[in-house]
Design a protein that fits this description.
Layout (H helix, E strand, L loop, with lengths): L3 H22 L2 E3 L2 H6 L5 E7 L16 E5 L17 E5 L18 E5 L18 E3 L20 E3 L7 E3 L10 E3 L7 E3 L13 E3 L18 E3 L10 H5 L6 E3 L7 E2 L11 E3 L7 E3 L6 E5 L21 E5 L4 E3 L1
Parallel strand pairs: 1-2, 2-3, 3-4, 4-5, 5-6, 6-7, 7-9, 8-10, 9-11, 11-12, 12-13, 13-15, 14-16, 15-18, 16-19, 17-18
Length: 332
């Protein structure tokens, strides 16, 4: 006979054993298709394929597949890709994909979709209409334009279009109403097109990365709620008072490697600004009053060249840290 204490111990043991078995049965990950086929197919939730020029039809036997990664050589995506109806992550890396079939819209549980270095030259609108998609990465492709024939999107939080060939930025990008992070580095961006006055646009956008885009001024049409802005490696020459008016929430600004030689004091009146990176300059004049809460952090090899009238940051808190790499002059 078991006493009550023994019954409790046995009950807990059975409970934790069942919990362990449940976890094991739904967390199997495979990098070898043959091994996955030999396993209990209902247990295969993650699969990585490498070196296939097309996705084998046999993968459709994995009814619980939640993550699929395909690398190195894929040329076609099957028209019936939508049959992988429980996929949450779909990742393509280093492939030669000619097109994305419209049937991808039936992968309705997708949350994370990535095409990285896949030679894509266009974006089908179906990607923007996946109902649960939160992260879309289309990095290192040949895309020349963002399509505008999609319905308003309220789910996409992160859009990564780094290193494509996009020259025109259309106003339809405003219709990603949930977007929090936008990566646009490395596009030969030259034209802003359309009406940029949607009152609902960019209310959640906090991080904007537009490095190496040929910008000659700050992209203020997207920055009202931005907290992190990186516009390094562009052609920006100044930050105007008008620019400052739409940077009220900014906490970090990187303008590294731009031809800026003068910064107006109005920039330092931004009450949330904590860090400004403007290194890699031969000379720059920063206008500061004695009351400004600004300190300077040098990143130079010859520390003897530092100007004595700047306050070093040290361990001070509540200061705007300006990162410099060359001797700097202060205009009072």
């Amino acid at each position: 006979m078991f006493n009550s204490k023994q019954h409790s111990v046995i009950g807990l043991s059975i409970f934790f054993s069942m919990l362990l078995l449940a976890n094991v049965s739904f967390s199997a990950s495979y990098t070898d298709l043959n091994k996955a086929l030999k396993a209990n197919r209902s247990e295969v939730t993650e699969l990585t394929l490498s070196g296939y020029d097309s996705i084998p039809n046999v993968i459709f036997v994995f009814k619980h597949l939640q993550k699929l990664t395909v690398r190195n050589g894929l040329r076609t995506i099957p028209q019936n890709i939508g049959q992988l109806g429980v996929l949450e992550e779909l990742i393509f890396v280093d492939n030669f994909i000619v097109e994305i079939p419209p049937s991808i819209k039936y992968c309705r549980l997708l949350k994370d979709l990535r095409f990285i270095n896949c030679h894509l030259d266009e974006i089908p609108k179906e990607l923007f209409e996946l109902p649960l998609l939160e992260k879309l990465t289309l990095k290192n492709n040949q895309i020349s334009r963002i399509p505008c024939d999609f319905t308003d999107n309220y789910t996409l939080k992160e859009l990564n279009l780094k290193y494509n060939k996009i020259k025109v930025l259309d106003d339809c990008i405003q219709r990603f109403y949930a977007m929090e992070t936008f990566y646009f580095t490395g596009n030969p961006f030259a034209i802003i097109q359309g009406d940029w006055n949607d009152p609902k646009a960019f209310k959640k956008l906090k991080t904007l990365i537009m490095r190496d885009c040929g910008l000659n001024k700050l992209p203020v049409f997207m920055t009202k709620n931005i907290t992190y802005l990186d516009v390094s490696n562009n052609k920006i020459k100044e930050v105007s008072d008008e620019d400052v008016l739409v940077l009220e929430n900014l906490s970090f600004l990187s303008m590294e490697n731009n031809p800026i030689h003068y910064l107006n004091e109005s920039l330092f009146r931004l009450h949330k600004l904590k860090s400004l990176q403007i290194d890699k300059y031969e000379s720059i004049i920063i206008q500061l009053s004695e009351q400004n809460n600004v300190c300077i952090s040098f990143m130079i090899q010859n520390l003897d060249n530092r100007q004595n009238d700047f306050r070093p940051c040290g361990k001070k808190k509540g200061m705007i840290a300006i990162f410099l790499s060359e001797p700097t002059k202060r205009k009072k």
